[in-house]
UniProtKB/TrEMBL annotation:
Transmembrane segments: none annotated. Residues 1-26 form the signal peptide. GO terms for cellular component: cytoplasm; membrane. Belongs to the glycosyltransferase 92 family. The gene is 109581647. This is Glycosyltransferase family 92 protein. PANTHER family: GLYCOSYLTRANSFERASE FAMILY 92 PROTEIN.
Amino acid sequence: MKFVTKLFLAVLLALLLFLVFRYAPGEIMDTRKGPSIKSTLASTYGEEEEDHMHTDKLLPDPLRHGQYPNNQSDLWIQISKEFIIRRLGYLDKRDGNNVSINLLSMQYEKKGHPPAIFLKIYDKYNQAVSCLSTSLELGSLKGRDTYVLYLIRSPPLMPDQTGSVSHVTISTNKQCLAESDSILIRIVEDKPPKYNFGICLHKAFENLSPKVIHDWVKLNMELGAEVIMLYLQMKAPQEVYNVLRPYIDKGRVEVLDWQLEPPLTSVDSYYYGQTGVISECIWENMHKVKYLGLNDADEFFVPLKHNNIPDMLRELETIEEARRAGSFIFTNALLRGSKALPIVTEALNSKSCDGLRVDSLPVYFKRSEYCLETGGQSVKMIVKPDAVFTAWGHLLLSYRSDKYLKEYIVPDTMGLSYHYRPGWNDYKGCTTPIKETRIIEKFFTNITHCSVL
């Protein structure tokens, strides 16, 4: 009996030793179910080397990632206060011969070029597939934004590296040691979009009034936008979300958290990382929207010959040069003065609009005179997301030049970008005579619910 007991213990010990040596610590980490890691990324910038123990954290929900409300740690990975990476990446399969993983990062521009980044790919079984170097592409022009976009791109991937990508981690170590928390990966591929036309507010905001945003959304919908995306900073008033809630519930508006601000960053960014907002909105909509307008909360793309923007886009598709273009460029029309649209006077004199007050009307009903600003940055654009890698508010920076031309200039007789900035009265940049416009009148009844007979 003693012999049998000793034999059993010996076999058990041998089995335990086999398991210990078979699954070494490195392999155990590669098959982990959560992103529990050590990180010494801060040492990249010459800071004191320090181990940051990351706790086990579930992958972000792919359907809710970025949506309001969210936490900074769920939105960003901080390599340092000067260099941060969005916790959502894209497996770009638009070109089957050049498949790559793309991440969006923001770098404090005074610190120069970011450090080299290495990428570890995991499949849906949480198995490590590859550790790869990456390239960094600046996605910004000289401007006032403090944090600027760098597109992190993997080299072209082989089929065995992309078969079932679930997430990636990043590191400044070329062996992909000291990994970050997990970064969710979405697939972008060449397939028919769900919507024809959408709009993105091209910078994050915190100090715009709920009324301004509400008025902006309503007119864009009347102009033909099927989906609208907005990015919030931390201090944006809750009321913005509240007034948009009916549109959010219908799937017409998506409100996302951006939160590019301290304590995540070392300083505030002038436009809250505008180049990052623009590029993320484009990447997010590649599989969803055929045409995406990029404008500010006081700007609107206005068709002059058609009832709405989708009708105008359909005509542009009949022009060969426009059909091949990756973006449509619109001249800036400066809406000046305080001369309201004639329909406002008619409504005020009407017995059917007793509750109407001029001070409560959107600004686009209270201006009817404009001039054109030409040259420089005085344009806005609608892009084809399928064409783009990175973009600025006024032009494409990098795009699929093997398939698309850079841009098509939309004739001023077909469409303009109406710009209702408060300070235009003192602006000297007009290059054309002042004209009158009544185009926006046709949306008055639907927006105000006041019918003028």
